[in-house]
């Protein structure tokens, strides 16, 4: 999603609040609770899960390992839920022709560096760069190429589903900022 006024263009970037992250966090939490419950039921020698007999699983080593896996999965799930809650990675890219400044803003993890704001002069930008790698793990990323040959990513790897969508976005940015397009 973007917003464009005469001299200012703002492109919003989605962060961690994606359907895939919600699904993975839920699957991890469910699996972790299952492993922890099986490990705990083997310790108590009681059937906390009706379709699984606790007598078939010894606490040492199987029950203990399953309980450990459950705890580890819970921590990973907590991490994913935290990134979703804080919406890590979301923000915006802002081209301001009046001031001659390009601003890149992202939300990070809580702390003193939660707000990440990087600003460049538009005159220091050389081009809009597209990187495309097709195949099993395809990769389509838009960058800003600085005159110092540094590439600054404007999008996530999985943001563009088609090459045409990426080319359209790059053309809009290049047209607005009067820059050339590199890549492909």
TrEMBL record:
InterPro entries: PSI_Ycf4_assembly. It comes from Hattoria yakushimensis. Seems to be required for the assembly of the photosystem I complex. Its main location: plastid. Signal peptide: none annotated. Pfam families: Ycf4. It is found in: Plastid thylakoid membrane; Plastid, Chloroplast thylakoid membrane. Keywords: Chloroplast, Membrane, Photosynthesis, Plastid, Thylakoid, Transmembrane, Transmembrane helix. The chain crosses the membrane at residues 21-44, 64-88. Coiled coil: none annotated. This is Photosystem I assembly protein Ycf4. GO terms for cellular component: chloroplast thylakoid membrane; photosystem I. It comes from the Eukaryota. GO terms for biological process: photosynthesis. It is a multi-pass membrane protein.
């Amino acid at each position: 999603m973007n917003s464009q006024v005469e001299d200012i263009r703002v492109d919003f970037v989605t962060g961690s609040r994606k359907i895939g992250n919600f699904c993975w966090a839920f699957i991890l939490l469910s699996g972790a609770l299952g492993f922890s419950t099986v490990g705990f039921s083997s310790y108590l020698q009681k059937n906390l899960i009706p379709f699984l007999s606790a007598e078939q699983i010894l606490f040492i080593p199987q029950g203990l390992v399953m309980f450990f896996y459950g705890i580890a999965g819970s921590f990973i799930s907590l991490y994913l839920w935290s990134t979703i809650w804080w919406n890590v990675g979301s923000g915006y890219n802002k081209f301001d022709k009046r001031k001659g400044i390009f601003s890149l803003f992202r939300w990070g993890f809580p702390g003193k560096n939660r707000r990440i704001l990087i600003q460049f002069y538009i005159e220091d930008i050389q081009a809009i760069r597209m990187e495309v790698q097709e195949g099993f793990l395809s990769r389509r990323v838009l960058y800003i190429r600085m005159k110092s040959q540094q590439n600054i990513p404007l999008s996530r790897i999985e943001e563009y589903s088609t090459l045409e969508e990426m080319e359209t976005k790059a053309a809009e940015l290049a047209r607005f900022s009067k820059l050339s397009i590199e890549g492909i």
